[in-house]
C-alpha cells in the first residue's frame, strides 16, 4: 500500500523520496498479528516473520472466503468451523492448510458439511 507521509511516499517495503533518487528500507516487524486460521502460510512458521506483502492479505482473504463458503449455514445464520484448521500451534495450522491446498482428498474432507458441523476428522 502506498501512502503519502509528509514529504515522502511510502509503501510496505521502502520509503521513496519525492525526487525518487533515494530508497530507504522500512524496518521489519518483530511480531505476528492475526488469527492463525486466516494467516498466510508464509507467516505461520517459527522464526522472524517475513516482510508483509499484499499477497499475504490476498491469501488471508482466500481463507476467510473458504471458511464462509464451506461453513456458513444461511438458514440458521451460523458460521461453523473448518475442524482441520482448529489446531493449537501455527505450525500445525500451516500443515493442515498445506494439505488442503495440495491434496484433493483433504480438500474434499475440509469442505464436507458433515465434517464441518459435527467435528468429525476422518471419513
Automatic annotation (TrEMBL):
<feature type="compositionally biased region" description="Basic and acidic residues">
    <location>
        <begin position="1"/>
        <end position="11"/>
    </location>
</feature>
<feature type="region of interest" description="Disordered">
    <location>
        <begin position="1"/>
        <end position="29"/>
    </location>
</feature>
<dbReference type="Pfam" id="PF17667">
    <property type="entry name" value="Pkinase_fungal"/>
</dbReference>
<protein>
    <recommendedName>
        <fullName>Fungal-type protein kinase domain-containing protein</fullName>
    </recommendedName>
</protein>
<feature type="domain" description="Fungal-type protein kinase">
    <location>
        <begin position="28"/>
        <end position="65"/>
    </location>
</feature>
<dbReference type="InterPro" id="IPR040976">
    <property type="entry name" value="Pkinase_fungal"/>
</dbReference>
Amino acid at each position: 500500500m502506498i501512502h503519502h507521509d509528509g514529504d515522502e511516499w511510502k509503501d510496505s517495503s521502502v520509503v521513496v523520496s519525492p525526487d525518487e533518487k533515494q530508497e530507504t528500507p522500512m524496518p521489519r516487524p518483530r511480531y505476528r498479528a492475526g488469527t492463525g486460521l486466516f494467516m498466510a502460510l508464509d507467516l505461520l512458521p517459527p522464526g522472524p516473520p517475513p516482510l508483509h506483502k499484499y499477497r499475504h492479505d490476498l491469501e488471508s482473504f482466500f481463507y476467510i472466503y473458504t471458511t464462509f463458503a464451506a461453513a456458513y449455514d444461511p438458514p440458521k445464520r451460523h458460521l461453523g468451523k473448518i475442524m482441520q484448521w482448529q489446531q493449537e500451534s501455527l505450525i500445525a495450522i500451516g500443515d493442515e492448510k498445506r494439505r488442503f491446498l495440495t491434496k484433493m482428498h483433504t480438500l474434499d474432507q475440509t469442505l464436507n458439511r458433515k465434517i464441518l458441523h459435527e467435528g468429525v476428522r476422518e471419513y
